[in-house]
Specification:
2 domains, 159 residues
Length: 159
């Protein structure tokens, strides 16, 4: 998929049995074109989609950050606000970029669901990094203990 937006809208149409419309979305070059496409705008409020859309967006974002190391690095370096500074009241902050930066997140007028998803993914990635470091540290300790044991055994054999 070209973008997370492509994936999100594609999954929405597939969930509603519109594979033909979903295929049309793939020809769009830019995420903004996909988002405003007539094919994508349908069905947004259906009950089926309301139950699936957050999980769909999270899967699309996870895939993006696992696949593209640069995007992962940028996400992990972002220490403050994670938000899409758009006027979108569900996925964004509900504010333009300047107001998003200047306003305390507690006072953003929207749900900022994309920001919440990104925070969740960031937490998972940081936890994964910590676990890898712990595992690496344990492996190094085991190697050291094995080396010491081998050295001790050699000394014992010589004596």
């Amino acid at each position: 998929m070209k973008s997370s937006e492509h994936k999100y809208q594609f999954e929405k149409l597939i969930a509603h049995g519109h594979a033909d419309r979903a295929e049309c979305l793939l020809s769009e070059d830019f995420a903004v074109d996909v988002m405003h496409s007539e094919n994508a705008c349908i069905l947004e409020e259906s009950t089926i989609w309301q139950e699936r859309k957050y999980a769909t967006m999270e899967r699309a974002c996870r895939k993006k950050f696992l696949h593209y190391s640069h995007a992962k690095e940028v996400l992990l370096k972002s220490k403050s606000k994670l938000a899409e500074s758009t006027l979108n009241m569900e996925w964004g902050t509900g504010l333009d970029m300047r107001r998003t930066i200047e306003t305390n997140p507690d006072f953003w007028p929207s749900k900022n669901m994309l920001g919440k998803i990104l925070k969740h993914i960031t937490g998972d990635l940081l936890e994964e990094i910590c676990l890898q470091q712990i595992d690496s540290s344990r492996t190094e300790k085991r190697k050291t203990v094995s080396l010491l044991a081998a050295t001790y055994s050699k000394k014992q054999a010589v004596e």
